[in-house]
Amino acid sequence: MLKDDCLFCKIIKGEIPSAKVYEDEKMLVFKDIEPKAAVHLLAVAKDHFKLLADMNAGQAETLKYMLEKIPQIAAQNGCENGFRLVINQGEDAGQTVFHLHIHILGGQKLPWE
Ligand code: 5GP
Ligand code: ZN
Predict the structure, then answer these.
(1) What letter does residue 62 receive in the DSSP assignment?
(2) Deepest of 13, 22, 56, 87, by most Cβ within 10 A of its Cβ?
(3) 91 Cβ inside 6 Å of ligand 1
């Protein structure tokens, strides 16, 4: 289910434009508007949920599906040498959009500090 007041649900519905790189019935992958690496993609489930802690069994299945798909999507979009996944959860992590999303970072040697 999508939520009317959620930024990423609006992107999924096409109400807000995005640079899409992959889409199927379960997930959408698009470019982050403020990239933190040479390649910075966001993978979102089409079923809105906020946090890993809120996830139901079906949403966990979707997350598994996304994790299985991501290596190929990353490789096809400039991360053939590797990539990093980040899922920010809550305030201390600096989460700003409360629709679960996976950051895909790569296209360069990534610092680890
Ligand atoms: P968070 O901080 O919640 O983990 O990540 C949210 C991400 O969404 C940030 O990296 C931010 O740059 C990105 N973002 C925020 N608004 C938009 C938007 O309208 N379009 C796109 N493509 N990315 C966005
Ligand atoms: Zn949403």
Answers:
(1) H
(2) 22
(3) no
Q: From the candidates 40, 48, 99, 101, which is the catalytic residue?
A: 101
39: number of Cβ within 10 Å: 18
Q: What is the pLDDT of residues 67-106, one digit of tens each?
A: 999 999 999 999 999 999 999 999 999 999 999 999 999 9
Compute the distance between CA of residue 78 and CA of residue 47 in angstroms, rounded to an integer.
27
What is the domain class of 7-106 according to CATH? Answer: alpha beta
Q: Which ligand is nearest to the CA of 10?
A: 2
* pTM, entire model: 0.98
For position 1, what pLDDT does the model report?
Answer: 86
Task: Return the HEC string of 15-54.
Answer: CCCCCEEEECCCEEEEECCCCCCCEEEEEEECCCCCCHHH
Query: How far, in Å, is the centroid of ligand 2 from the Cα of 8?
Result: 5
Domain spans of the chain, in order of start: 7-106
Number of H helices, E strands in the chain: 2, 5
